[in-house]
Amino acid sequence: MALDEQLLDDPDGLTAADPSGSLRALAMAGAQVRMALSATAEAGIAKVVADGRPRAVVVASLGGSAVVGDILILMAGSGAPVPVSVRRGLPLPGWVGPLDLVVAVSMSGRAPGPLGLAAEAARRGCRLLTVGAPRSPLAEVSERTGGVHVAVPRSDTPAARASRMGLWSLAVPMISVAHELGLTDASHEVLERVADRLDEQADKYRPSSDAFVNPAKSLALELSGVMPVVLGDGDVTGVAALRAVSMLARTARVPAMRGALPDDAGDVVATFDGPLAKRPAADIFADPEFDDVPAASPQMRLLLLRDAAPTLDRPDGSWLETARTADAVRATAEDAGVRVTEVSADPGHPLERLADLVSLTDFASVYMALASGIDPLTSPHVADLRDRTH
């Protein structure tokens, strides 16, 4: 994919190329957090938390909103007092019942998976929290069966109504309820700091900032025409890598692999002598006008997402082992001739660090799409798939 570098440094051109408002939607991420906090308070979540901790929490999410369940698992951590799991589609596990909390998330409120799981949870007498569009089928299920629905505020831009662009609108209500249940330490104050961090990132990655000083535009250029392998060096960065490959695929139309250390180190470095690691040497005797010269395969590029030293959430120092593994993977890649891009989160709460990396890769994905003449919001093939499966 060849990017139009001149467009990246043309704010007016980027605006014209982005009629759906994808860049504006990403710039509003901090506002999404604040509005979602207000919407959660207005929804009356006391009804969900009044009976204390559930036996387990099951998150129903799909497609662009799927990562919200992974965010909750990250926030709860390995020391969570109750199991937290993600379910993409029917049926609910057989053990789920009245002692459990089911959280169904869908921006449109119409996604069949979350909608069906919410209805089944209601039939089983589970506590039910739903997050999505107001006056949607999902809202009706929740309100009709005694659940609590947190309505995502309406937006005037098409992109902001897309689940992948409204990540924080969907995640914050779920995180807030989990905090009230004692499952996470992501308090209201933490979420306010996340909002501030997202505002700072949006200013750094704004369209009027030139590519040579804009990390998101620089990353877009580095990922142009390559096969990205996105590797996180721990729990926070592993979720960020999951989000990054989803945004690269759905927004920039770039297929990417992802992994998390230390588990996936071997799988990743094994590819460093494979067919995508290096371009074949050019045939100096070939004449492009007369010889059938095969197109070169895109070369791999390792995008290494690094966490800040998480001394507060991992006081045992175990992060040092993972950091050493990440250093070793980078050194192995460089020795093998594989290009590496490394980006790091700033210190802070795990949710703040996640916000750093998500913001960067979100903006980079949209810049890649716009500079290659692609609508970041709408894929005709996704639309075809939806028509054929519904």
From TrEMBL:
InterPro entries: Glu6P/Mann6P_isomerase_C, SIS_dom, SIS_dom_sf
Alphabetical list of Gene3D superfamilies matching this protein: Glucose-6-phosphate isomerase like protein, domain 1 (3.40.50.10490)
Keywords: Isomerase
Stretches assigned to the SIS domain: 45-193
One Gene Ontology MF term: isomerase activity
Family (UniProt): Belongs to the PGI/PMI family.
Protein name: Phosphosugar isomerase
